[in-house]
UniProtKB/TrEMBL annotation:
<dbReference type="Pfam" id="PF01019">
    <property type="entry name" value="G_glu_transpept"/>
</dbReference>
<keyword id="KW-0378">Hydrolase</keyword>
<feature type="binding site">
    <location>
        <begin position="458"/>
        <end position="460"/>
    </location>
    <ligand>
        <name>L-glutamate</name>
    </ligand>
</feature>
<comment type="function">
    <text>Cleaves the gamma-glutamyl peptide bond of glutathione and glutathione conjugates.</text>
</comment>
<feature type="binding site">
    <location>
        <position position="482"/>
    </location>
    <ligand>
        <name>L-glutamate</name>
    </ligand>
</feature>
<feature type="active site" description="Nucleophile">
    <location>
        <position position="440"/>
    </location>
</feature>
<dbReference type="GO" id="GO:0103068">
    <property type="term" value="F:leukotriene C4 gamma-glutamyl transferase activity"/>
</dbReference>
<dbReference type="GO" id="GO:0036374">
    <property type="term" value="F:glutathione hydrolase activity"/>
</dbReference>
<keyword id="KW-0808">Transferase</keyword>
<feature type="region of interest" description="Disordered">
    <location>
        <begin position="1"/>
        <end position="71"/>
    </location>
</feature>
<keyword id="KW-0012">Acyltransferase</keyword>
<protein>
    <recommendedName>
        <fullName>Glutathione hydrolase</fullName>
        <ecNumber>2.3.2.2</ecNumber>
        <ecNumber>3.4.19.13</ecNumber>
    </recommendedName>
</protein>
<dbReference type="InterPro" id="IPR029055">
    <property type="entry name" value="Ntn_hydrolases_N"/>
</dbReference>
<feature type="transmembrane region" description="Helical">
    <location>
        <begin position="142"/>
        <end position="168"/>
    </location>
</feature>
<feature type="binding site">
    <location>
        <begin position="510"/>
        <end position="511"/>
    </location>
    <ligand>
        <name>L-glutamate</name>
    </ligand>
</feature>
<feature type="binding site">
    <location>
        <position position="533"/>
    </location>
    <ligand>
        <name>L-glutamate</name>
    </ligand>
</feature>
<feature type="binding site">
    <location>
        <position position="181"/>
    </location>
    <ligand>
        <name>L-glutamate</name>
    </ligand>
</feature>
Amino acid sequence: MSANNPSGSISPPPGSRRIRFSPEVSQTLTPEPNRHYHSSASSSDDSCDVKTALLPQPTGNWRPRRRRSGRSWQANAGLITALVALSVLFGVIIWENEGSDPLTDDSELLVTGKHGVVSSDVDVCSQIGVDTMKKGGNAVDAAIATAACIGTVNMFASGVGGGGFMVVRMADGMSKSFNFREAAPASATRDMYHKDANLARAGGLAVAIPGEVHGFATAHRMFGKLPWKEVWEPSIKLNSEGFRVTPTLESIMLKEEKFFYENRKDWSFLFSESTGNLAAAGDIMKRPEYAQTLTKIARRRRLCRPRMALRQNQTSTLYHTVVSDTVNTNFLGTEVITCPPPCSGAVMLEGLNIAEGLPMDDPSAPASHHYLVEVMKWLSAGRTELGDPFDSVVSDNALRIAELNTKEYAEAVRANISSEQTYRGKHYNPAYEPNDPKGTSHLSVIDTHGNAVALTTTVNLYWGAKLHDPVTGVVLNSEMDDFSIPGRSNAYNLEPSVYNYIQPFKRPLSSTSPTVIVDHNGEARMVIGGSGGSRIVTGVFEAIIKKLVWGYSALDTIRSPRLHHQLIPEVVYAEEGVREEVLAELEKRGHTVDRKKKGEAAGGSVLQGVWRDAERGVVEGVADWWRKGGKARGY
């Protein structure tokens, strides 16, 4: 897959056809084993009564294909049918961008607020989050409102057809992780993509069960202040009135220009009514179908569970959000809080534990950046052992995962790090081949009370599975591509991770690392997270090192060029702007350096950060304008 085209230019497979589903589905809950803190609600009111929608007839160069031997397409139709039905239960949000004056100074991107700040990929969405707090909402309300907006403007990377993770740290000290990651359908099997891996990337078989709306509802039910309806109202209004297309959206559309013109009927909302061409930056885009769906969601104060009848005539089960304790470590006198597997926060903590004892305090010292990269290689190796604890194979490895986060393990790793050279990949003991998930969207929030939220959402590949339902406006995810496919070793003879094999209802491994850092006074000091696939965990790790170890300002923490190493391939990716003497010292120590442009499209991470300055009594926020055009807002 090209780094410049995260979607890989994969079209939905032949045979994708118009699918009709029945909205009359049983709601018998089949609990999943090994889950804890399951959200629940009265079964009589939990469903959203949204009527039938159709998966549109493909156009352009899509062609039906011959029925395969073994499982037929009709046998899979129930799976796809239910997934489309699920998406109809969810609203999709749109935004409005009135534009802003051109930036004359990067310092304009450092936003300061006396009460609270929201940092996100989209300026107007950050403002919606701030407006939500001004109305009396807290950080959880603001995060949901902001994400609702982002799911529309950046529908190519996130939205209610996907899922994600949220870390909430309340001012009273309570912290919780919300796992609303997409789940494999009931009819999914370990070897379902063995013959054709592209089926996991586009079309109906690529779609995992979306969890975003249920995750938002669960978090709101536990911690939200504003009525559920008020959180969605800004997006409903913007949905009806339209929004201005951003340069980021325009550029991402152009990457798939040929696909959209060939499938224009299915993606008509992307085209300008006046020109007939794909919408350009500044054009107005309206999405009335979203408004209708969002209105139905906003009217439901109780949890709205997706209904998952995944085979024809099969008793349905209900999706649930996994609410659990966060995973934490102490780092330089602070407490670092993040989400447990299947998110990658655990290995980010591993990296911090390793770095804490290394002589890398001086960013101008040649060895400091070498140590930074070496820790990235170790945490990437640890990531090959992560997976969804729902799988008994993963839960049997729980002691090993716990070991990765200990100070004793970090000390043992440091004994295997040289200041003068790097090593080949096997030195770092990867258990399996690392997986390489794709782009996402992240936002960070601190409110006036000191509550903090780090929220990361995704539909996986750009434009998800390249399936858009024009009746509901949902862009469906391609999260099945985040699972590992057995029997396909890589160039280093590493097998795909057994911990990330497909299993019904299992959730695939994610690179997301939403993080909250608490100071010695028990106050949220820093909220950080990012998008960019496998670059997320290294990007978050590097940002924490820059801020807490190297003493970077909030602005420089986000805008400064980044390094990335994911162990395999054995290459250091360096963004433009990294000093040549730093790169020369890395090469001197045996690293292979590949110079890259900045940004997610070039294969880099995109970070959104918020910091509380206790001495000044203000909150600061910086969004990654340099890589994705975002901007923070405060009040």
